[in-house]
Amino acid sequence: MPPRPPRRRAGGPPPATTQQQRSGVVTFTDLATGYCLDSNSAGNGYTMGCNGGQYQQWTVYGYGTLVLVNRATGLCLDSNASGNAYTMGCNNGQYQQWRMVESGYGTVNLVDVATGLCLDSNGQGNLYTMGCNNGSYQRWARG
Fold first, then answer.
1. For the segment 78-109, what is each residue's pLDDT rounded down to a tens digit?
2. What is the tally of structural domains in the chain?
């Protein structure tokens, strides 16, 4: 039987279902910048130099569609139709569900289920979503 995520607590991961499993803790590194996906307790999402800290570690839950929960804050990676990317309390909504699509060279695109937009960043550390183009700023290496 696969491991199950812990029961939901305030700001914690979504409750377990028979279709969810804990997939482990990973970091996501932007191929173009070499920066890691990061966040803070205020709900800001961004990228910055990789430092191995818990704010750059994400617990991934799910089969097919995934939920990414920040290890330090317990907040879920979220987005909206306007292209903003951030973290907030986990709510099982489609804006917090992502698909990992293999994009070559050991990288993935993170595609938001609700919008179909890809997680993207730039050299200044901004994080957002936009139409998928398989560009290097949308390709994330898992570590």
1. 999 999 999 999 999 999 999 999 999 999 99
2. 1
What are 35-40's contacts with CB under 8 Å, separation 24+?
35/121, 35/125, 37/77, 37/119, 37/127, 37/140, 39/70, 39/72, 39/73, 39/75, 39/77, 39/86, 39/87, 40/73
Domain that holds residue 7: 1-78+93-120
CATH at residue 67: 2.80.10.50
Residue 111 lies in a domain: yes
pLDDT tens digits, residue range 25-67?
Answer: 999 999 999 999 999 999 999 999 999 999 999 999 998 899 9
Q: Is residue 138 part of a domain?
A: no
106 vs 76: CA distance, rounded Å: 24
